[in-house]
């Protein structure tokens, strides 16, 4: 991409080509929104980082057209093998099992190294005609009632109607709009993560070597690669050495391996686990998403997943407002819905990190809903198994139509006994119970009623009606 490409005016400028930024780029592209993703680096970020893809995110990826590629790029989690004094002592599943049923086809987390996740998302974005401008470090911005002017380190600028900050925990955009983060340290210890080539360990287990005080290292075979991800929790005040020699010493000190068994360091990073939430997710025409809005402990695999779902919530709303199908106030529901959800996920991640909550049903994110949102209307006196605000489950109706197939794509879906002008319609599965259901583009039930009374008024304010039916 040349410099002039990034200077053209556009509808949405997304800052950051991480999981949130690329997922948002995909969603905007399939809605036909003129958007550009910019990334400060010269290429996609390396490293495994967040590797857990939770079942709810797998549903999102299926809708975005990347789940098959994600599965090909990764694999299942192996059981955790604990070691003591050089001997294996205990093996157990990493996650409590969650039973699948017709409404929840995906219940097991998928392991995909984050660098491979980025490759899959980037390829899909390019396939849809989306653009990424690398080497575009944002230094500041100014906004007015018509749009946002973004400044880059090379002296150029870009103009967009909206800007989305997906540029990580140290977000330049968040600072530029004056939004603070409120949070706490999760653990005083020193932590590091690295992608290594290792010999002498089988790839059928997540090998964990811990001292009695809880410090130590874990080596997880990264599905779809030849690497192991090293995770280490070290005593407070430890000076972390990320060099090959330093990581060899660390692995040899805690595990049964010799230093020479670590043959290569492919990427490494140290961090201090922290939970923090942005005070706001929107300032005028600027939105915060992903780590720019919330920073998690990596325990429980919630950060990347929450970030992708930020994008999934925001994309269709931006598209509806930009197309003139919905009022500007629809965008207020992004913060209204996502900030409380992110706060809950922060608490969950911290609890998992501290051993207070097990990985399993609590962490797969299938129970997320928007019941208190102003965009949710439940008009039935006695709701059935599925109510407004719920994630719309999978299943087949009497005609054999699979719901996830019907929901797939950037449209709303009406589940009703008969079609409605401008909305279409098909029967709901019996598992939904009685009623009429309008399912949002992000797979949540926005409106539910005993009949279609009030449906069109809701659809108009939510941007659900086709352009020729408004």
Low-confidence stretches: 1-6
Roughly what fraction of the amino acids lie in strands?
A: 25-35%
Helix segment count?
A: 11
**What does the average pLDDT come to?**
92
CATH class of the largest domain: Alpha Beta
Question: Which CATH-level-2 architecture of the largest domain?
Answer: 3-Layer(bba) Sandwich
Cα end-to-end separation: 39 Å
Number of domains: 3
CATH topology assignment of the largest domain: FAD/NAD(P)-binding domain
The backbone outline, from C-alpha atoms, is globular
Radius of gyration: 23 Å
- Give the biggest beta sheet: 8 strands, mixed
Tell me the number of strands: 25
Helix share bin: 25-40%
CATH 4th-level superfamily of the largest domain: FAD/NAD(P)-binding domain
Q: Which structural class do the helices and strands define?
A: alpha+beta
Short description:
With 470 residues, the chain is an alpha+beta fold. The protein has eleven helices and 25 strands.
Provide keyphrases for this structure.
FAD/NAD(P)-binding domain, seven-stranded mixed sheet, alpha+beta, disordered N terminus, Glutaredoxin, 25 strands, 3 domains, 470 residues, Alpha-Beta Plaits
Q: What's the helix and strand layout?
A:
Elements: H1 3-7, E1 10-15, H2 19-30, E2 35-39, E3 52-53, H3 55-64, H4 67-73, E4 75-76, E5 80-84, E6 87-92, E7 110-111, H5 114-127, E8 132-134, E9 138-143, E10 148-152, E11 157-165, H6 172-176, E12 181-185, E13 190-198, E14 206-210, E15 216-221, E16 228-234, H7 244-254, E17 262-271, E18 274-278, E19 282-283, E20 286-288, E21 294-295, H8 303-322, H9 332-353, E22 377-378, H10 403-407, E23 413-415, E24 436-439, E25 445-449, H11 455-462
Parallel strand pairs: 1-2, 1-11, 2-8, 5-14, 11-20, 22-25
Antiparallel strand pairs: 3-7, 4-7, 5-6, 9-10, 10-11, 12-18, 13-16, 13-17, 14-15, 15-16, 18-21, 19-20, 23-24, 24-25
């Amino acid at each position: 991409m040349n410099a002039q490409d990034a200077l053209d005016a556009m509808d949405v400028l997304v800052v950051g080509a991480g999981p949130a930024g690329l997922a948002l780029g995909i969603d905007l592209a399939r809605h036909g929104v003129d958007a550009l993703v910019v990334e400060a680096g010269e290429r996609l970020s390396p490293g495994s980082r967040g590797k857990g893809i939770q079942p709810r995110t797998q549903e999102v990826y299926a809708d975005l057209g990347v789940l098959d590629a994600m599965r090909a790029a990764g694999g299942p989690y192996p059981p955790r093998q604990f070691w003591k004094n050089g001997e294996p002592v205990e093996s157990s599943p990493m996650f409590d099992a969650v039973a699948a049923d017709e409404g929840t086809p995906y219940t097991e987390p998928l392991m995909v190294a984050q660098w491979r996740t980025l490759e899959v998302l980037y390829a899909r974005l390019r396939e849809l005609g989306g653009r990424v401008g690398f080497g575009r470090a944002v230094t500041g911005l100014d906004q007015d009632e018509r749009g946002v002017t973004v400044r880059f380190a090379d002296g150029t600028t870009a103009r967009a109607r909206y800007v989305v900050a997906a540029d990580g925990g140290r977000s330049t955009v968040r600072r530029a709009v004056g939004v603070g983060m409120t949070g706490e340290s999760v653990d005083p210890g020193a932590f590091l993560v690295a992608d290594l080539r290792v010999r002498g360990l089988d790839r059928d287990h997540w090998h964990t070597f811990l001292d009695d005080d809880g410090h130590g290292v874990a080596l997880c075979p990264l599905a779809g690669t030849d690497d192991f991800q090293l995770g280490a929790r070290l005593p407070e005040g430890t000076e972390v050495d990320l060099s090959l020699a330093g990581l060899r010493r660390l692995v040899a000190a805690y595990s049964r391996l010799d230093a020479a068994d670590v043959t290569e360091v492919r990427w490494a990073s140290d961090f201090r686990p922290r939970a923090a939430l942005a005070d706001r997710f929107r300032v005028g025409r600027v939105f915060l998403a992903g780590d720019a809005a919330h920073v998690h402990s990596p325990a429980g695999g919630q950060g990347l997943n929450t970030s992708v779902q930020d994008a999934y919530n925001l994309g269709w709303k931006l598209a509806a407002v930009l197309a003139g199908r919905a009022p500007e106030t629809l965008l207020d529901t992004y913060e209204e819905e996502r900030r409380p959800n992110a706060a809950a996920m922060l608490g969950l991640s911290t609890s998992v990190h501290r051993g207070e909550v097990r990985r399993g049903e609590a962490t797969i994110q299938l129970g997320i809903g928007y019941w208190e949102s102003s965009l949710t209307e439940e008009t039935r006196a006695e709701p059935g198994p599925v109510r407004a605000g719920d994630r719309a489950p999978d299943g087949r109706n009497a005609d054999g139509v699979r719901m996830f197939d019907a929901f797939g794509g950037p449209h709303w879906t009406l589940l009703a006994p008969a079609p409605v002008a401008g909305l279409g319609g098909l029967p709901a599965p019996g598992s939904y119970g009685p009623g009429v259901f309008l399912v949002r583009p992000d797979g949540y039930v926005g409106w539910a009623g005993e009949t279609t009374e009030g449906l069109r008024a809701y659809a108009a304010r939510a941007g659900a009606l086709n352009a020729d039916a408004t």
